[in-house]
Amino acid sequence: MQNPIHPYVVKILLLCAVLQSCYNPSHVGTLGKKMQPTIYGGLATHTHGAHNRQIRVFSPCSYLGKQQFTKRAINMAYFHDPATHRNRVGLAKSSLHIGTGDFMDLVSGDIFVDKTLLIKDFLTDGGLALLITRPRRWGKTLNMSMLYNFLRCEVRENETTRELETVNSHPGLFDNLKIGKEHPGLIASHQGKWPVISLTLKDIAGEDIQAIEQKFKSTLAALYRQHDYLDNWLHTLKQTATAIAKIEYFSDVVRKRADLTDLEESLCFLSELLHEYHGRRVFVLLDEYDTPFNNTYLKPELYAQVLIFM
Questions:
Q1: Tens-digit pLDDT profile for residues 86-134
Q2: Where does the chain show beta strands of DSSP type E?
Q3: Quick one: 274 exposed, middle or buried, by C-beta within 10 A (0-12, 13-18, 19+)?
Q4: Is 238 helix (H, G, I), strand (E, B) or coil?
């Protein structure tokens, strides 16, 4: 069923809300005169300029919801300029990172819509597998990046002992976001505690099965290199026939020597290694899983080959 409200109508309503906020003080909130990015109602901005202008960011209209802004409306602000004692509407000179799917890139920007409470929904769902189906450009990749950076632990070599140690990859990153303020227990028990496999198939495309195979091998090789400490760890184990076979398989994937039949077990194999090393369950985040099908469905023979493999 089509959306009854045309997108352009929504944009007009949003911009009208901005203009309305200039004349109705109840629709604005003062952010204060801080020079660093500040989070307010899901948005982050800061004061800037020669006159240190005070920025007031409008609150959204109730019928549009708290976070349904257009890109321009997010960056639209109500200014009070102490030098002229005038109020005006203008575009805040804050950077909005558009088009990125990297949570770490977005959270470091001037403007940030805080949706970290999604992490709580994810952790308390209880399902063994979750499928997120939304249209393109709805933030699926960005939210998966957020989950990845929240959950994943990192294995580093201790500079003193030269031994491998598991650490929180981003300590304190989520403490001042909504998830940290409203659910600090989840921060303590989950943030930076889990082994995570994050794989995207967005680059798996080609004119024939050989080209697709090479792209898939390169994608898996890059994934395995992210966990190269496992290869070092395998070499420290007792060299039984099983251990040697694991070392050889890991090496074959990294060096792109494994064929497609062998690669069918690549994710399962990596998950088992991570579970064995960390002693914890493994989170697998798979993005753009349908790209190989979308890129080949007009070529029935190639589509059938991809379907059999996937």
A1: 544 444 455 666 777 888 888 887 778 889 999 999 998 888 888 888 7
A2: 28-30, 38-40, 43-45, 54-58, 76-81, 86-91, 153-157, 164-168, 196-200, 283-287
A3: buried
A4: coil
